[in-house]
Hints:
The chain has 360 residues and is α+β, with helices and mostly antiparallel strands.
Amino acid sequence: MDTLTHALSGALLGRALTPSRxxxxxxxxxxxxxxxxAWHGVLLGFFAAAFPDSDFVLRIVSDLxxxxxxxxxxxxxxxxPLWALLIGWLASLAFRRRDAFRRYGWLAAAAxxxxxxxxxxxxxxxxxxxxxxxxxxxxxxxxxxxxVFSGIIVAGLIASALLWRSRVPSLFALALLPVWVGTTVxxxxxxxxxxxxxxxxQGIKAQVIDAAPRPASPFNxxxxxxxxxxxxxxxxxxxxxxxxxxxxxDNFVRRFSAPYAPLQQAHWExxxxxxxxxxxxxxxxxxHPDFEFFRWFAMYPLAYRVEQTAQDTCVWYRDLRFGFPxxxxxxxxxxxxxxxxxxxxxxxxxxxxxxxxxxR
Length: 360
């Protein structure tokens, strides 16, 4: 999920957790510390919920370091207490309320937690137990930028500003978020059922059946059936009964949604995992020790191009989950090149503008 939505979700949660007026309670203050102004909760929630994405600094080290570390230790429930204590301490200094250190720490913990939850519901996955494990976990039902999800948060914040004495708008908006996520889960289950039915009808002994959320609707999905060597892929809308016809004058939401066909009119494409140009070379690169990071990272890896020139030979891979109709370029493309048969392979990243760049 995008960093701005994360930060706004933290602000909304901070408002929900911070009453405008103190209600003295020795038990509450013993556990959570003294009352703080509502605007402290909003501001702290905003910055604390944005904090996990500070791992973008890994790009300074290398693109490979960023790929390996993004959504790692800063998104970990194992490390969350440490980050909450650190941010709570900084907030107590910034607000000059050292007596409220515990309150700020709890607010920071909640804001970081809602960030982790916001990434967990997407398909990219989050390393919840880093640094103990680099396994990624994700519900995989919400697209990385979901306008309805973000809209609920923004509406909740606007209503909270208008009714500034009440926490009800923020609590109501927070309650709506899991309802929306539940709607996306319904869409995913429908897409998976469609993919299973296709595999059964085609007699495919599927190793993987999965679905990736797509923009503009909780019912827009790319479905994948993998038989061990070949991907079967279709882009569908699980609730549509007729194709969506658009023109250049239509809004971008409608245009992004149009390529997803009704289930009855689904068009299935097939992609060989190791391609058809030089599958032996593609397998060699896939199995190379230096390509381990991509084997760990990619969900639907595909060798999409083999380049053989007088100077060198390159094999390029992409992940099918990041390519969908209407997207002009596909991120996270990597490959390996060598100068001559038998020479050492070198790891590269590929970008449409910068071209290929060796990875450190």
